Amino acid sequence: MKPTLPIGIGYALAAAALFGASTPLSKLLLGSVDPWLLAGLLYLGSGLGLSLWLLLATRLTGKGSTEASLKRADLPWLAGAILFGGVVGPVLLMLGLAATPAASASLLLNLEGVLTALLAWFVFQENFDRRIALGMAFITGGGVLLSWTGDTAAGVPWGALAVAGACLAWGIDNNLTRKVSGGNPVQIAAAKGVVAGGVNLGLALVAGSHLPAFPTVLAAGTVGLLGYGVSLTCFVLALRHLGTARTGAYFSLAPFVGALLSLAIFQDGLSIRFGFAAALMGVGVWLHLTERHDHEHTHEALEHDHSHVHDEHHRHDHGPDDPPGEPHSHPHKHEAMTHSHVHYPDTHHRHEH
Prior knowledge:
two-stranded antiparallel ribbon; two-stranded antiparallel sheet; 353 residues
């Protein structure tokens, strides 16, 4: 039987679409907001919006979340993710956007997926095969072609270096976030938004920036909530199901979404180059969608806590204090098991190859 596509792919594509759309919208806001201040407003809007959602969801339903709460052991990983992805990355991106055309920025944002995958493969030892690597190459090639200007003048613009630095910061962030991806994704995104947004906003105000008019603040907060908060929530869910490298590969479609929206906003015409870029990205996504990773593997005994249903990998007994219904979260044990089936490097398949 042909396996169904994992839900993680949908989460990854949603994350890419939302974040990709935020780039040209942020470019519009930079006309009236200091880059450092805008980085703070974007993330603070994300954090406050998601925190409000957590509060309202609990009060309206009268039920707790089915997701596992963050634990003390998660804090070092989350702190690192907030530092690199929430503080350093957004500031570098806003500085880069201020000095870089929107199309060129879209090109450089493809580096995030590449750097995320390289760190996952060679630093965090996540498995990959030639099909996944080739798919990543096609997606990245499409992004390069998408924004290639043909300008071969010597020297690298500082704006481009800033965007590339943001991609490296987010690549580190993505790999660190995977370590806590079993926790509540809204809680993770909200914490990152509130802390990182508050830090950048405070530093920008101390450095002499001034808050813009309220409509601009509201617009920045809305873009941040959708393009950073909801996007990050979907990204964390994708990490849980797909692993870091594959999630990063699908997320590399974000610049394509940004370029499409830029065409509508800035009234740029379609080109043959754009069509070829879309074709290359389409081939890359097809290579990933049709991946079939199937071999005998062993699950070592494990005890952890995350949202789950009672499937092939969750056949444990429940105690009287464990929550009813599915999905639910509670500490549970996995016995050692050896079997064979199609799988991704998700929470339960991080074995050696």
